[in-house]
Amino acid sequence: MHIEIITTPNEMLKESGFGSSKACNSVLAALRKDGQGHSVRLNTCSSKDDLDDIIKRNPELVILAVKYIPVKHEDDIWLSDYFSQHNIDFAGSSRDVLEFDSNKVLAKTHLSNKGIKTAKYFVAIPGQYTNENELPISFPLFLKPLDAANGNGIDDLSFVTNFTDYESKMASLYESFNQPILIEEYLDGREYTVAVIKTHDEKLIVSAVEVIPPTSTNGLQILGSQAKIDDSEKLIKIENTDIERRVTTLAIDAFNDMGARDFGRIDIKTDISGECFFMEANLVPGMTYGSSYFPEACGIAHEFTYDKVIRLMLDGVLTRASLNQLSNMPLDSGKNFTASLSTTH
């Protein structure tokens, strides 16, 4: 099968994605050595012209390592929309579902309406509230960007216990991200992340692990950008079977209720009593070999190698693309294509 991986110069992107060129090359290498004989190419795109060149090559499947390509002075080019318009199959979720990844409040609101528990929250800009008594939720609070991933904007100062610190962090985040800020009730329990893969037969492979952030000099355990840059957090197997069951159930419900397709990662946190709350979804998960949560969770929970994780992630995708190719072929060539189906997947 002719497959092309699409990314963009993304070292400075604050949104989710497979990661740097190193991560994309790891995915490329895994596909090239999976024994199925795929023709695979990696593209770093920064304009519509780059995407148009891919359309001319007419790949049977594209793997979207980022959600969109930012274009200066123009609207972002959302890749799922772009390739859908050109009738080319793509891996991952559709544009409307990916909005749940980009907008944490949208995801929280949608899932809360479905009966899934989320941390209490509100959205604000600097100066919107003038004193502690006006705040919709009592301290302690946790402040973070509305749509950033990878811990961007999150540090020890995100945890606030008074109005002065609240205003200071609010101003700092607004200056950096130029958008309203998400403020959540602070949950003082444990953190979990869950990798979810949907196979060709609609079964879910679920890998839930606990995330242990490093302890800062202030005695806080906050999973911020520096911890992720330093790779100083730890992922460990969940030993408590009841917690694992509850975390897994919430992740599956969130994945399904958002309408996610193929794969995604769900972040969950508990309060001090162990109650589980949805925190956010990452539907274009990081894929850096040896550090990204998605492949690492699969390795810890199921002892999957990185290459096997890639194969499983694309299991349903390849089947879907193959069947779509079959349905689009002339009737007299269907027999030959059916014979080749087993060699492409």
The ordered H/E elements are EHEHEEEHEHHEEEHEEEHEHEEHHHH
Which second-level CATH architecture of the largest domain applies?
Answer: 2-Layer Sandwich
User: CATH homologous superfamily of the largest domain - what is it?
Assistant: ATP-grasp fold, B domain
Chain oligomer state: single chain
CATH class of the largest domain: Alpha Beta
Tell me about the biggest sheet?
5 strands, antiparallel
Shape: globular
> Counting H and I runs of at least 4 residues, what is the number of helices?
12
Mean pLDDT: 89
**Strand order in the largest sheet:** 13-12-11-14-15
User: Distance N terminus to C terminus?
Assistant: 9 Å
- Please state the structural category: alpha+beta
Find the CATH topology of the largest domain: D-amino Acid Aminotransferase, Chain A, domain 1
The rounded Rg comes to 21 Å
Poorly predicted tracts of residues? 331-345
Strand content: 15-25%
- How many strands? 15
Structural domain count: 3
Helix content: 25-40%
SSE inventory with pairings:
Blueprint: E1 2-7, H1 21-32, E2 39-44, H2 48-57, E3 61-64, E4 68-69, E5 77-78, H3 79-85, E6 89-91, H4 95-102, H5 104-113, E7 121-124, E8 141-145, E9 159-160, H6 163-177, E10 181-185, E11 191-198, E12 204-212, H7 225-230, E13 234-237, H8 241-258, E14 263-270, E15 276-282, H9 293-302, H10 306-313, H11 315-328, H12 334-344
Parallel strand pairs: 1-2, 1-3, 3-6
Antiparallel strand pairs: 4-5, 7-10, 8-9, 8-10, 11-12, 11-14, 12-13, 14-15
Helix pairs in contact: 4-5, 11-12
